[in-house]
Amino acid sequence: MSKEKEKCALCFKKEDYHGVWVFAEQHNGTISEVVYELLGVGRRLADQLKEKLGAVLIGFNIKKQAQRLIQYGADDVYVVDIEDAARFLEEDYAEVIVKLVEEYKPAVFLFGATALGKSLAPRVASRLQTGLTADCTSLEVDPEEKVLIQTKPAFGSDVMVSIVCRNKRPQMATVRPGVMKKVEMCAARRGNIIENNHIPPLKLRSQVLNFSRKQTEVQLEQAEVVVAVGRGLGKVENLKLIKELAGALGAAIGATRAVVDAGWISYQHQIGQTGKTVAPKIYIACGISGAIQHLVGMQSSEVIIAINKDPEAPIFDYATYGIVGDLMEVVPLLIKRIKTIKNLS
Amino acid sequence: MRIIVCIKQVPATNEVKIDPKTGTLIREGIESIINPFDLFALEEGLRLKEAHGGCVFVLSMGPLQARISLKEAMAMGADTAVLLSDRAFAGSDTLATSYTLAAGIKKLGGADIILCGKQSTDGETGQVGPGIAAQLDIPHITCVTKIIKVDHAKKRIVVEREVEEGYEEILTTLPVLLTVEKEINRPRFLTVKGIMRAKKTGVVVWTASDLEIDPSRIGLSGSPTEIVKVFSLPRQKRGIIFSGTPEEQVETLVSKLKEAGYLF
């Protein structure tokens, strides 16, 4: 059977592929937040294509979650609920997913750019010999060609690139958590649950022996206020001041990649294309010029305050309020002012 | 133990400076370097060799100038360097790159452990490592922060990897492909002895005809993804830039925030 399928790769016809799929990542029975965001964008794409939205749910004792995926926009949920899946790692997930794709032939397949998704999606794409675009910030359907236009910032410059995968299916992409909007839950939504528990024998070569939870002082994604620093900080010693500002505001600290690469702060704080995506109520960008790679990680913040000595810095195009000035001068004034208000109230 | 480290030559982005007048990147005179993430993979490979014996191969795909990076890897301590270089490889996306590198690994006779950086600093996809593992049909583990134990005889390895919430300790089988985080180690410096040795040894170059590959799966024709548009986001000021002394600006900001109900 598998040999026949291999041969069928030669008689591949993209017209046979229909619908939009999302990978419903779950850990210990809890669906990852990014899945609802994928369902949000997937719903729109499926409607534009006039096709169905499917979700792939793999795990153990997981079936009851399928209804939730439907309530958040899925038409079909492909469930693999088997005991072995409780210990699945990328290789095993990939084998099961490849079989599902070969059987049901989705045209589009989206994964969250999580630790698992970023590792699993390329394995699946490589097995299926199809294209994969990492960290998309926008996904659209070309109305004529019906291909998926996958847009992301280009490397090291202020331009965006749009990528298509014209001749292979499914068209695969990863999307960072926080980038897409989820749709409202609708309890009355109806859909199909398709069970696929007859999976081929798996190798199960890897297993998690132990898990240790991180000490997370940084709750960037949940923070209502984020104070972020860029190269304009000048030197690592100046971070003290930023910490003081964050402390006064009860804010989490974010940073650009340049600051993380310089070793001034850990990667956990990185915001942007290759870091976290945040949308706090207030985002204070200190000494951040506003490279597009950073902007995509914070531009949905409600109020963006930019402090930068360069009046031409692109960050000012995105800022709600801008202060042109030296960080080392402005920030202490701001701290002082905030502390005064706090003492008064 | 046979160890293969995959490296990529990338532009030295850390040396890109911002033009203080225009706020744009200064791109002139940017040199090429080994992808910084790959240095951690190479260092880990060298440490594995020191602990378990064996040899470290370093493998890359790219234009002939990538030989410079491979020589640097040899100067750090790699035993053999191989470059896959052919016009036919040009325009490869991550799928075609994974396929070609996997073919190079097969030609090298495979490995017990294949190491890659977490991602490249130019493409930033992190897709090639897992892609190679899929082509070779071996397990892969990404974001490795520690190699805890290698049992060469039993063909088993235990590593620690970073995920969102914490760290997983994972047991898997050899051969395996690992992509490593920069927390895993501190790469060593080049030594004069190493540089001399690298000069003498040279880099092996293989072209498409040296590899067992399907020509339709390499380069542009083997790359399903295609860039169809490059564009700038429109610049439009959407907010207010304050004026006045720093004190006045801070005052205006605070009152604006209070007005909007954002502060306290």
Q: Could you please describe the fold and organization of this structure?
A:
The complex is a heterodimer of chains A (345) and B (264). With 345 residues, chain A is of the alpha/beta class. Chain A has two domains: 183 residues, HUPs (Rossmann fold, 3-Layer(aba) Sandwich), CATH 3.40.50.620; 125 residues, Rossmann fold (3-Layer(aba) Sandwich), CATH 3.40.50. In chain A, helix 6 runs parallel beside helix 10. The relative contact order of chain A is 0.11. In chain B, helix 2 crosses helix 5 and helix 3 crosses helix 4. The relative contact order of chain B is 0.16. The interface between A and B is large, with 89 and 85 residues.
In short:
Chain A is of the alpha/beta class and 345 residues long.
- The termini of chain B sit apart by 62 Å
Secondary-structure element order of chain B, as H and E?
EEEEEHEHEHEHEEEEHEEEH
Count of discrete alpha- or pi-helical segments spanning 4 or more residues of chain B: 6
Largest sheet of chain B: 9 strands, mixed
Average pLDDT across residues of chain A? 92
Radius of gyration of chain B: 23 Å
Q: Name the overall outline of chain B.
A: globular
CATH fold topology of the largest domain in chain A: Rossmann fold
**What quaternary form is this?**
heterodimer
The unreliable regions of chain B are 14-27
Q: Which ranges of chain A are low-confidence, i.e. pLDDT below 50, for 5 or more consecutive residues?
A: none
Present the secondary structure layout:
The complex is a heterodimer of chains A (345) and B (264).
Chain A: H1 2-8, E1 20-23, E2 26-27, E3 30-31, H2 33-49, E4 53-59, H3 66-71, E5 76-81, H4 90-104, E6 108-112, H5 115-128, E7 132-133, E8 138-141, E9 148-153, E10 159-165, E11 171-175, E12 192-195, E13 207-213, E14 225-229, H6 239-249, E15 252-255, H7 257-261, E16 282-286, H8 292-295, E17 303-308, H9 315-318, E18 321-324, H10 327-344
Parallel strand pairs in A: 1-4, 1-6, 4-5, 5-12, 6-11, 7-11, 14-15, 14-16, 16-17, 17-18
Antiparallel strand pairs in A: 2-3, 8-9, 9-10
Chain B: E1 2-6, E2 9-11, E3 17-18, E4 25-26, E5 32-34, H1 36-52, E6 55-61, H2 67-76, E7 80-84, H3 94-107, E8 113-117, H4 128-136, E9 140-151, E10 156-162, E11 166-173, E12 176-180, H5 192-201, E13 204-206, E14 225-232, E15 240-241, H6 246-259
Parallel strand pairs in B: 1-6, 1-8, 6-7, 7-13, 8-12, 9-12
Antiparallel strand pairs in B: 2-5, 3-4, 9-10, 10-11
Helix pairs in contact in B: 2-5, 3-4
